């Protein structure tokens, strides 16, 4: 997916100090006459000067009129019979995302305290713990091949088994930038009603506090994990909530295909390749994410470990074989 790049400032062009004027025929009409002392012409001289300006065969044409250039037609689609038909395809893939308005929160940066903590050395705990996994949907667990069919999704290989494991092993929150009605369809395809109830939260586009204009346009959104950590249900789910325990950068991971969305907490991102279609899918993506999450469960601070050892796909990874039963 293409990511948002803030546009440069406006450019100011210098105006020319003078505009040269060129009128056709003027050069010939102003030929120089030899200069010298003035005096009366000789008696034999004709009444008119000998020099005559050359006769032009054709009348000089006036300067051409300015014609406003017409707007060029949209490029022709390869499979279109009409030369004025715009290219077809989902709007999601056309150009970069726009910068969010200040009313939508603008573009965040990591807090200094966050960076200070993430730059410390990682430390591994002997026993694993239940961490908080914030899961993306579209592009991570599913793919919508045709935006004209907004409720038709293709699951990433191993998606349901992977999500079921996460619900059994960790705390899971679902956060998608899709509209709520699309989130509802994706969740219904992936989870049973019982599994859905076990999710700490299920958020869609309406959770980003966007302005109405940004909500309805292709704007870059940012998943500020502080919004998740301050949610009452998420706070209450912490295993040590009664004694002051809280969710933070040490125990939370965001699984997403977009690096830009994790701009506020970059070292809590487990970034995976965007799922576009099964034929382009690297082998065993989600099983490798499964193993990496198990590694994070042993870390005292997830942000420190991810900064030092971010997630990378292993092209030689193979699924573990089921144990062979020799008792039969």
From TrEMBL:
Protein name, as recorded: Mitochondrial import inner membrane translocase subunit TIM50
Membrane protein topology class: Single-pass membrane protein
Domain of life: Eukaryota
Quaternary context: Component of the TIM23 complex.
Keyword tags: Mitochondrion, Protein transport, Transit peptide, Translocation, Transport
Major site of localization recorded for this protein: mitochondrion
Biased composition annotated in UniProt, kind: Pro residues: 61-76
InterPro entries: FCP1_dom, HAD-like_sf, HAD_sf, TIM50
Record's function text: Essential component of the TIM23 complex, a complex that mediates the translocation of transit peptide-containing proteins across the mitochondrial inner membrane.
Subcellular location: Mitochondrion inner membrane
Similarity comment: family membership: Belongs to the TIM50 family.
Domain FCP1 homology: 126-296
PANTHER family: DULLARD PROTEIN PHOSPHATASE (PTHR12210)
Species whose genome carries this gene: Fusarium albosuccineum
Biased composition annotated in UniProt, kind: Basic residues: 49-60
Gene Ontology biological-process entries: protein transport
């Amino acid at each position: 997916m293409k990511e948002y790049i803030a546009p440069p400032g406006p450019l100011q062009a210098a105006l020319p100090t003078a505009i040269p004027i060129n009128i056709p025929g003027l050069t010939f009409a102003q030929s120089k006459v030899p200069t010298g002392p003035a005096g009366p012409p000789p008696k034999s001289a004709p009444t008119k000067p000998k020099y005559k300006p050359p006769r032009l065969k054709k009348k000089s044409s006036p300067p051409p009129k300015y014609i406003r250039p017409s707007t060029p037609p949209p490029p022709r689609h390869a499979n279109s019979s009409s030369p004025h038909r715009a290219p077809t395809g989902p709007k999601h893939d056309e150009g970069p995302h726009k910068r969010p308005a200040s009313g939508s929160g603008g573009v965040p940066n990591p807090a200094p305290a966050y960076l200070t903590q993430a730059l410390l050395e990682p430390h591994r705990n002997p026993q694993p713990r239940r961490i908080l996994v914030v899961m993306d949907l579209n592009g991570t667990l599913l793919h919508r091949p045709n935006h004209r069919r907004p409720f038709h999704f293709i699951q990433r290989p191993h998606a349901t088994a992977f999500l079921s494991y996460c619900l059994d092993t960790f705390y899971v929150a679902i956060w998608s930038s899709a509209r709520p009605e699309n989130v509802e369809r994706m969740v219904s395809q992936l989870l049973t009603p019982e599994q859905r109830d076990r999710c700490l939260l299920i958020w869609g586009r309406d959770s980003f506090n966007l302005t109405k204009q940004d909500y309805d346009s292709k704007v870059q959104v940012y998943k500020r994990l502080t919004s998740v950590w301050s949610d009452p249900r998420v706070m209450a789910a912490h295993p040590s909530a009664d004694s002051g325990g809280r969710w933070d950068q040490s125990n939370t991971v965001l699984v997403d295909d977009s690096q830009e969305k994790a701009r506020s907490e970059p070292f809590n991102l487990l970034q995976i390749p965007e799922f576009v279609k099964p034929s382009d899918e690297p082998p065993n993506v989600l099983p490798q994410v499964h193993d990496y999450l198990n590694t994070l469960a042993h870390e005292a601070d997830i942000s420190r470990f991810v900064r030092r050892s971010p997630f990378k796909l292993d092209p030689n990874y193979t699924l573990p074989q089921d144990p062979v039963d020799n008792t039969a």
